[in-house]
Design brief:
The chain has helices at 18-25, 30-47, 67-77, 125-132, 138-157, 160-163, and strands at 5-9, 12-16, 53-54, 58-62, 85-87, 104-109, 112-118, 164-167. By secondary structure, the protein is α/β, with parallel strands linked by helices. The strands form two sheets. Strands 5-4-6-7-8 form a five-stranded mixed β-sheet. Strand 1 (5-9) and strand 2 form a beta hairpin. The longest helix is centred in the last third of the chain and has 20 residues, at 138-157.
């Protein structure tokens, strides 16, 4: 599993583990949690290279609409309730196809922004197809649950710099 995410809240050092985030989020979208953790692992050292970032000064814009992503950013940064989290469809990279188009994140901290985009191989066409399908059967829901966990396991097994590229 991933190392704890280190941040500061008004001078108090905080470590957030995947288990902490999963307790907040629940079991529904482990892949989304894994994506957000990888984004934070990749972005935080760039945004605040010399010390842990102040969690309440991080803003997030993303094309990703999933609750696992949202809940992770809320648990770690409080960005949702403090109105620093935005789902922005204009960030979508439609040229990358339906499978990858929404895995775009822009994190900003103290005037510095970093844009991250997913690399190929971490999200499958089958996952996106089932996830976006209306009126799934029980068998399809069961398969989607397996795919969510497989994706989370794959993401957590990889270093963040092999999952998300910093663009620009």
């Amino acid at each position: 599993m991933a190392a704890p995410l280190e941040l500061v809240d008004n001078g108090t050092h905080l470590d957030f583990t995947v288990a902490d985030v999963m307790k907040y989020h629940g079991p529904g979208f482990p892949g989304g949690v894994a994506h957000a953790v990888k984004v934070l692992e990749r972005a935080l050292p760039v945004l605040s290279p010399d010390s842990p970032a102040e969690r309440r000064e991080i803003s997030v814009a993303t094309a990703h609409r999933g609750p696992g992503v949202r809940d992770t950013f809320e648990a770690v940064t409080r960005a949702v309730t403090e109105d620093r989290f935005t789902v922005d469809s204009t960030l979508e990279r439609t040229d990358r196809g339906a499978t990858l188009e929404r895995y775009v994140f822009v994190l900003t901290y103290r005037g510095v922004s970093v844009r991250l985009e997913i690399r190929e191989g971490f999200v499958t066409d089958e996952f996106i197809g089932l996830g976006r399908k209306a009126d799934r059967t029980d068998a399809e829901n069961a398969r989607l649950t397996v795919l969510k966990q497989e994706m989370a396991d794959h993401l957590f097994a990889a270093p963040a710099d092999e999952v998300y590229d910093i663009i620009g």
